[in-house]
Input
Amino acid sequence: MKTKATKQRDLEALTESLQSAKSAMVVSFAGISVTKDQEFRNALRTAGAKYQVVKNTLARRAVKDTQFEQASESFKGVTAIAWTDGDPVVLSKAMSKFMKDNAEKYTFKTGVVDGKLIDVAQLTTIASLPSKEELISKLLFVINAQAQRIVTVINAVPRDLAVVIKQIGDKAPAGQAPAAEAKPAEAAPAVEEAQAEDAAPVAAEEAAPAAAEEIPATATEPAAPAAEAEAAPADETPAAE
Output
């Protein structure tokens, strides 16, 4: 049997621990084995919670002037309290699962989460929410995804600009080539005219000697009949004899 001094120490320790807690669950049990009790304690410890079977008078005194005082009406029969100063969702998940798996042994009485009294239905609702770690993980995923998109866009700007510049550079010579080729084409007639003008005097000079050489040939043509005339009497003379 505990002495008065021991009970006082237990009261002070429980009071101090509950004052810093963010949430607490009150449960009852019947006909449990040591193994089942240890299983329940381990599940709560994994969730970062503390667990203690308490006397109702001690529990009422411990929660006085705290946010858990509103749960005092549930301190009847066999009473055990699980509380945490961490994420209440994690405790709610562990508590809800164990209550469902061991409904014939454990009974959920009430709970206080962030200063609000909850029942078993609300416990199930809270347990279905993502935990703080899950929310942080999702938030980091969203932030990283957005940051990745921003980096992709930033990197795409100079890359696209370089592609555009390259395309302009590739197209510029092809566009200028026709203009360069057009100029010699336009100048071709003028060059041909100049060459024709330069060639004209040369042709005239070459034609002049040719004409001069042909003149004697035409002058000697009338002499041919004279020779024929002289030759004719010679042939006719013997005929006359």
Residues 177-191, 199-241 have pLDDT under 50 and may be disordered.
